Amino acid sequence: MSKKKEHKVHIATDEEVRQFGGATPSEAAASGEEAVEPVKTPPAEPMPAVTPADELQTVRRELEETQDKLLRARAETQNLLRRTAVEKSEAIRFANEAFVKALLPVVDDFERTLNAAGETTASGALVQGVRLVYEKLLKILKDNHVEPIEAAGKLFDPVFHSVMMQQPTAEHAPGTVLQEVQKGYCLRERVVRPAQVIIAGAPATNEETELS
User: For 172, which of 154, 193, 200, 205 could close a Cys bridge (C-beta 3.0–4.6 Å)?
Assistant: First the structure.
């Protein structure tokens, strides 16, 4: 009985691979294979040296930037506090505005009542009593910084006056308030209700008169 010849497998070491694994350029050319050029790694660029002076300059720049941010934040905070204080003050000064607006129609009723009483034979004592109540009401408004707006004879001011109509006339300059239809009032320097007025317009020309 014949014995089978055993074949041993030799595993190459890393050193053997490095020695015999790569073909030289001449061997590669002889075998028709393209020679593989070894990859050259460029040398690493040296890192610039950081001196203590550079570090100090960097720290100073960062400190200046931080101080600038703090100053800006402080200025914004002060502006916010200032605006809040102004808004609070305005809210306190004009806290009664809604109440004044609701009360003005009552003042109008008193004025209409007194005007109507002057045109009738109403009892003098009754009219005097109504007038006293009306004057007390005006005093309360004045004590709370509510003042009537002057209108009659004044030039039209869109802040204080509201035009109901224009009346052509040659006796007054255009824009002059001829008549006050409804009295206006101010709470401190704020207009609560503008005066409704009739103002003078330019006088009609001859052509306009003939057409009318």
Answer: 200
d(C-alpha 130, C-alpha 148), whole Å: 20
- Report pLDDT digits (tens) over 54-108: 788 888 888 889 998 999 998 888 888 888 888 887 787 888 888 899 999 999 9
Long-range contacts, stretch 133-136, CB < 8 angstroms, 24+ apart: 134/107, 134/110
Q: Which CATH class is domain 97-204?
A: mainly beta
The model's pLDDT over 130-151, given as tens digits with 9 standing for 90+, comes to 889 999 999 999 999 999 999 9
pTM of structure: 0.57
SS3 for 76-103 is HHHHHHHHHHHHHHHHHHCCCHHHHHHH
Parse the chain into domains and list their residue ranges.
52-93, 97-204
